[in-house]
Amino acid sequence: MKKALFSIFIGLAASLANAGDFVNHINNKAQDIPQTHVQIINFWAAWCKPCRKEMPDMSKWYTQIGKKQKVGMVGIAIDSPENVSQFLKQVPVKYPILRYTGTNSRAMMSQFGNQIGGLPYTVIRAPKCAYEEKIVGELTFDRLNQAVQKAQSSCSK
């Protein structure tokens, strides 16, 4: 019962936040969070120093491991299109970048479990087996890898 309620909550939170509030940064078209077995959803902003520091490691992890394992990874920028573009020219990343276009980023992030509104904030989840880990603060290549392995192993039981 707990697992079913958790799955319903995760689906509801994702659908509420996905209702037109995210756009692909490249083409400005509405886009939902990719639905994959394991998902990494990273909330960030160009003005956030720990965000800027973690993104090269996250991009490296995605190209070396994530793509091969078909892990869905997306960065959600809580920032202006101009700031995001300028940052991505300096620090290109290999995973999709979406921008939040709604009017209440704190409420949107709380739907993903970020009650304090801090950045960077990452959710690693496996919706089909009701697994979710929330991480506030900077991630490293190794920390991200450990978190994804934990999600994968918890779902293979």
UniProtKB/TrEMBL annotation:
Coiled coil: none annotated. Residues 1-19 form the signal peptide. Residues 8-153 form the Thioredoxin domain. CDD domains: TlpA_like_family (cd02966). One of its GO terms (cellular component) is cell envelope. It is found in: Cell envelope. This is Thioredoxin domain-containing protein. One of its GO terms (molecular function) is antioxidant activity. GO terms for biological process: cytochrome complex assembly. Pfam families: AhpC-TSA. Keywords: Cytochrome c-type biogenesis, Disulfide bond, Redox-active center, Signal.
